[in-house]
Structures are given as C-alpha cells and as structure tokens.
Specification:
Elements (H helix, E strand, L loop, with lengths): L2 H27 L3 E2 L8 E2 L3 H10 L1 H16 L11 H5 L4 H23 L1 H7 L3 H32 L3 H12 L4 H24 L7
Antiparallel strand pairs: 1-2
Helix pairs in contact: 1-2, 1-3, 2-3, 2-5, 2-7, 2-9, 3-5, 5-7, 7-8, 7-9
C-alpha cells in the first residue's frame, strides 16, 4: 500500500470516528428527557449536539453524524428520546425533529462557512466569533423547528382530523413555542463552548475543525 493510500485511509478513519462520536453524543443527549404534560414533544439535550456537529465538523460531516444517529435508531437501537427506536417512532409526532437534527447540522455548517467567506460582512457588522456562532446556531434551531413543526402538523391532521389551519396552529403551540427560550439558551451554550470543543479535537490530534 502506498503512502498516499495509507494517508487517505487514516483520514477516512479519523472522519468516521468524529462522525460516530457526534452520533453517540446525540444519543446520550436523548437520555436527558423532560416530558411536558401538554405536548408530545419533550425537552431534551439532543439539540446541543447537531449544532455542535455542524460547527465543529462542517455541514456535510455534521449532517452525516445525525444521519448515522437516526439510522441507528431506525435499526432498532434505543437511542431516541425515552429509549425509543424503529419506524414507528419516526412516524410518530416527534419524528420530524429527528430529521430536523440532520438539517440543523447542515444549516449551521453552511452558515458558518458563508459568514467566514463574507469577511467584509464580518468587519462591517462587527461580528465576534461567538456572535457569529450564536447566529448560526439559531439558524440550526430554526431548521429543527421547521421540520419538527411541519411533521407534527401532518401527524395532528392524520391522528386528530384537524383542519390545516388548526394543525399549523397546534403545531406552533405544542412543538415550537414552549421550547424557544430553552433552545435559545442552548444556542448560547453552543456558542460559548465551541472554541473549547475545537481545541479539544485538536488536542486529540484529529485535525483542525470548525
């Protein structure tokens, strides 16, 4: 095997390890679940890790980490909130949030890349690194809400036979509004720890990310 082939293999294994790491972190986040009595959507720590995956791994690898997480749950591993797994969970009221994690990681990574490319914009608007990270994280949260609320609205339409307007209104009330404050706080946490996460990956000699 040539030196270049070995180097490519090492890079592939390193990236696979990072992708799997963030899939596992998302699964761990699902273990911290707070059910709410008025909505089928619980509060979990999961949102933190798709955002961090997008920031630290970039859009494609970050999204792949969440694809791996969802695939593990669909394969039967109890990695979803409340120990859920399988297709039945995906087609339940919260399945859209799982797809939203994939979208969020991609959106965050893309937003960070766009902000970095727009150096003039950074100078003009006086973005700090943490400020830009926070804005990108909010974009990821919005992606989760969009996927989750639309899926929840569709589920309400099928399960409760509500009108389109009623479905969208209930999806907003049950799947978005109760979580805005806590998810903004999560975005702040992600912005605060992002630099430490990047340095941690470098200390592990996994390369330069984020």
């Amino acid at each position: 095997m040539s030196v270049s082939a070995r180097a490519r293999g090492a890079v592939f294994l390193r990236e696979l390890a990072l992708i799997t790491l963030f899939a596992a972190l998302t699964a761990l986040g699902a273990r911290v679940t707070i059910p709410l009595p008025f909505t089928p959507v619980p509060v979990t720590l999961q949102v933190l890790f798709p955002l961090l995956a997008g920031l630290l791994l970039g859009s494609k690898r970050g999204a792949l980490s969440q694809v791996e997480y969802v695939a593990a749950g669909l394969a039967g591993l109890p990695v979803f909130a409340k120990g859920g797994s399988g297709l039945a969970y995906l087609f339940g009221p919260t399945g859209g949030y799982l797809l939203g994690f994939i979208a969020a990681a991609f959106v965050v990574g893309e937003l960070v890349a766009i902000m970095r490319a727009s150096t003039k914009g950074f100078d003009t608007l006086r973005y700090s690194t943490q400020g830009a990270t926070f804005l990108a994280s909010l974009g990821g949260v919005a992606a989760i809400y969009l996927c989750g609320a639309l899926w929840l609205a569709a589920w309400l339409g099928v399960a409760r036979h509500l009108s389109l307007t009623a479905c969208l209104t209930q999806a907003w009330k049950l799947g978005v509004l109760p979580f805005v404050a806590v998810d903004v706080a999560k975005a702040l946490v992600v912005a605060a720890v992002r630099e430490g996460g990047r340095r941690w990956l470098e200390l592990l000699q996994l390369g330069h990310y984020g």
